[in-house]
Design a protein that fits this description.
Number of helices: 8
Helix content: 55-70%
Distance between the termini: 45 Å
Radius of gyration: 22 Å
Shape: elongated
């Protein structure tokens, strides 16, 4: 669902870019920048169609076991924790830990094993480390021009 929203934003942003760059001249003498930038809304529409088709296929497939309950638990608990002001990385960890413990029938050992396996995932580490580079910014003093 979020990927479709992202593609809609890319399509809309690409359309705005095309309309603003109609008069800009490209380095290629026969094209304007508006013509060059038309690839963004075209690619956005194609990606939206692909994501919608994948979503339809996923929704019509017969779920095994408690997949729907697990997805609902993860989404609801994640957004509730975000609404309460819990950081994103901790919200992801608590939501998945609750899903493993209560819905998957796992134990605390399973949670520890999956956490250790997840430390090899660069994407999960990037989510946790995202606020670190921005943390000194509010205290930074920039010279006046």
């Amino acid at each position: 669902m979020f990927i479709i929203l992202f593609y809609v934003m890319v399509t809309y942003g690409g359309y705005q870019l095309c309309t603003r760059a109609k008069q800009a001249v490209s380095t290629m003498p026969q094209f304007t920048m508006g013509q060059v930038y038309t690839i963004f809304p075209i690619a956005g529409v194609l990606c939206i169609l692909s994501a919608v088709l994948n979503l339809i296929v996923e929704l019509t497939a017969k779920p095994e076991g408690g997949q729907i309950q697990m997805i609902a638990w993860l989404l609801i608990s994640f957004f509730v924790l975000l609404f309460l002001g819990v950081p994103i990385g901790i919200s992801l960890g608590l939501a998945s830990m609750g899903g493993i413990l209560f819905l998957d029938g796992g134990s605390i050992v399973t949670v520890a094993q999956r956490t250790f396996e997840g430390m090899n995932s660069f994407a999960l580490l990037a989510i946790l480390c995202t606020p670190l580079p921005a943390s000194p910014c509010p205290r930074a003093v920039f010279p006046s021009a």
